[in-house]
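Reading a protein record of the kind used here takes little practice once its layout is understood. The fold follows as a row of integers, each naming the local backbone shape at the matching residue. With these conventions in mind, the following record can be read line by line:

_____
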Amino acid sequence: MSSVRIGLIGAGTIGRIHAKTMGKAKGAELAAIVDVDEGRAESLAKEHGLKKFYTDYLEMLEKESPDAVFVATPNYLHAKMTTDSLSRGAHVFCEKPIAMNAAEAQAMIDAKRKYGKMLMLGMVQRFTCEAETIREVVRAGTLGNIYYTDVTLLRRMGIPGMRSWFTTKEFSGGGPLADIGPHALDLALWVQDFPRPVSAKAYAYSKLGPQERGLGTWGIPEPIGRFDVEDLVVALVELENGGVMSIQLSWALYTIEDTFNCILSGEKAGASVRPPKIFTETSGKWTETSFQCPQVDPYLKEIQHFVDCITESKEPMPRPEQGLVVMKVIDAIYKSASTHKEVPVQ
């Protein structure tokens, strides 16, 4: 295969990022653009020198027969578009979250196995130097047994696309837990080799969004729509290995600063991902070791990994089975928040 011909489904914010990045990836060829908004599809196609564009992804699959597709659409479309693409012989890169719920995610995995194609998830945080560095620290046993993980992704003013699909539960599945939660949960689990989550106790709030406060710059706002999702989630997730994860996620919150970090506390030492650092006690004194990370484009590394896995017939690193685990945790957190009870991760 000289190059991997890719059909991009979705010309929104993340779709535009992927389209631009594909031009830098070795062996990747952007072959087609699809978006239900014809003007948006045409505009992005022209930007990348494509004469044809589509408003129907099934038509694109039939006429272009791409080697692979990128599904960069609202969450409620992920499962169907992925399954349809797999069934028509295309490998699939699906943006997070994998689906609206664990049942949909399992159906996507079943389709991947049935049609013998590759399915990779858009977990771009894994491709940062910081995450890779701390994962190696953990795997080397430097921290010892990890019993406490604190993962925080708090935005003060980060509500995306007010009144668009982002803020409409029917189309998104939820607020920050469904949107940025997959990044935080996947990062926290991946750096410690995915210990199995067993239960969740959670709280969800919708305070600033309904007031149209805390609006961010991501996404495309709509003049008419709803805000019927949470803007803050706090949860404790118990792990099978005896550890516990504390999770804090917000789109809008009156707090001191925007924060995205994962801190791991073990019996020998602790570590943070941002900045990448180890901290412990040596001869009765607190000591810290920092790591230098070069500036890299994680989106480019992510796409290059996807293309390389196709051309070399390798299993991708962000596997859909791990996305299913993350989805089960998200389902459990939402159920706990609605029932005010601790619930199992099933």
Observations:
- The mean pLDDT is 97.
- The chain is about 35% helix and 25% strand.
- The first strand starts at residue 4 and ends at 9.
- Residues 118 and 313 are 9 Å apart (CA to CA).
